[in-house]
Amino acid sequence: DARVTQTPRHKVTEMGQEVTMRCQPILGHNTVFWYRQTMMQGLELLAYFRNRAPLDDSGMPKDRFSAEMPDATLATLKIQPSEPRDSAVYFCASGPPAENTEAFFGQGTRLTVV
Amino acid sequence: GDSVTQMEGPVTLSEEAFLTINCTYTATGYPSLFWYVQYPGEGLQLLLKATKADDKGSNKGFEATYRKETTSFHLEKGSVQVSDSAVYFCARVSSGSARQLTFGSGTQLTVLP
Predict the structure, then answer these.
(1) Is there a contact between B31 and B95 (Cβ–Cβ < 8 Å)?
(2) Of these four, A29, B3, B53, B77, which has the most CB atoms within 10 Å of its CB?
(3) pLDDT by residue (tens digit) across A10-53?
(4) Are B74 and B87 in contact (CB under 8 A)?
(5) For chain B, how big is the Rg over CA atoms in Å?
(6) Each residue of B35-77: pLDDT tens digit?
(7) What are the phi and psi torsion angles at A61 (to 5°)?
(8) Are the C-beta atoms of residues A100 and B93 closer than 8 Å to each other?
(9) Which neighbouring-strand residues pair with B14?
(10) Contact A33, A43 (CB under 8 A)
C-alpha cells in the first residue's frame, strides 16, 4: 500500500529551536509539495519540487524556512529559528509524472512552538 | 492566476439530507479538477476527480460534474451520513509544465444524527 510518510507526526519545541520535518514520497513520484494548514489561513502552499528541483517556493518565509530534496526518496522542510506563529500542521504530498494528476498526502506533522 | 473558489462554511445537515458544496475555478488552461476530504486528525484524501469537460467523478455516493460553461465543479450527495462529517476541499491542477495544485479554502460539513 503505497503512501507518503511524514516524520515526526507531532513535534513540540521551544521558540528559537531548529525544526526539521521529513517526507518520503511515494516511490516513482517526481513531484513533491509542502503545505501548511492553520485555522486562520487554511491550506497554504509553501514549496514544490519537480524531479528534486524547486519550482516554486514563493509561499515560504525565506529568512527562516528552507526546503530541500537531498534525494528522490527524501524531502525536508526546516525552520530555523522557530517561532510560535509557525505552529501548524505541515503536510507533504507527492504526485506521479503523468500530467494533470492528483497529489497524495501524508498524515502531516503537527508542530507546536512554545 | 489559477484559483479555486469554494462555498463558505460551515455546513450543518441532518442525516439523509441532500448535500451541495459549490466550487468554481478560473478558466485558464485545461485543468483537472478534484475533491479532497479531510477527516479529523488526518491528511487530505482524494474523494473524486474529473479530467475534462462534462466528465463526472463519483465515489462513496458523492458526485461532481466538470462544467466548462459555468467553470464549476459542485460536489453533491443525495443522502449524507454522520460519517461524512469532514472538511471538503475543491482543487485544480494546472496543465503544462507548472502543474501546481491549487486548493479552495475548504468547507466544514457536520452531519447530525
Answers:
(1) yes
(2) B77
(3) 999 999 999 999 999 999 999 999 999 998 888 999 999 999 99
(4) no
(5) 14
(6) 999 998 889 999 999 998 999 999 999 999 999 999 999 999 9
(7) -65, 110
(8) yes
(9) B112
(10) no
Contact status, residue A13 vs residue A78, Cβ threshold 8 Å: no
Does the beta-carbon distance from A43 to B32 stay under 8 Å? no
CB B2 within 8 A of CB B31: yes
A91 to chain B, any CB pair closer than 8 A? The answer is yes
Chain A residues in contact with B101 (beta carbon < 8 A): 33, 45, 48, 93, 95, 102-103
Contact B100 A107 (CB under 8 A): no
Closest-CA residue of chain B to A41: B105
A112 neighbors A13 (Cβ within 8 angstroms): yes
Give the separation between CA B102 and CA B49, rounded to whole angstroms: 14
Comparing CB atoms, the residue among B34, B45, B89 nearest residue A43 is B89
In this predicted model, what pLDDT tens digit does every residue of B3-24 receive, in sequence order? 899 988 899 999 999 999 999 9
